[in-house]
Specification:
Length: 131
């Protein structure tokens, strides 16, 4: 190992520590998202404490054919292709100003508002109708 190689590991670990610290200081956006099928007009509405992560996971699962939670969405992905879909952040929940706020409950309320607004059920979407 040359002297140049020995200096890479500490810098790599230092960079990793910096990224971890930045993540802790600024958590990912949380809120409500939509996956829209532009070929047939259907939409899926969901929410997550980590919007970018949820959208990346959904895109990965659909692309690899392992999206099990919404089989009709997976079928349409195969039928129409990736180019027929868009992934959108509908609403971002601001970080709480005070501790003790139930973020999951806040997200459920926000998601319910979007479900009521878009009504993504039956021919209009992939969500399961309420009740």
């Amino acid at each position: 190992m040359s002297s140049d190689d020995s200096t890479l590991a500490p810098r790599g670990q230092s960079r990793r520590s910096e990224l971890k610290q930045a993540y802790k200081e600024k958590p990912p956006a949380m809120g409500v998202f939509a996956i829209r099928n532009h070929a047939n007009g259907k939409v899926l509405v969901g929410s997550s404490l980590n919007l970018p992560g949820a959208l990346n996971r959904a895109r990965f699962e659909l692309s690899t054919g392992i999206h099990r939670r919404f089989p009709a969405l997976q079928e349409d992905w195969v039928r129409y292709g990736e180019g027929s879909f868009s992934f959108e952040e509908l609403d971002v929940l601001p970080p709480p100003k005070e501790p003790g706020v139930d973020l999951k409950e806040e997200l459920q309320v926000l998601e319910a508002l979007w479900l009521e607004r878009l009504r993504p059920y039956g021919e209009a979407g992939y969500n399961t109708p309420p009740g």
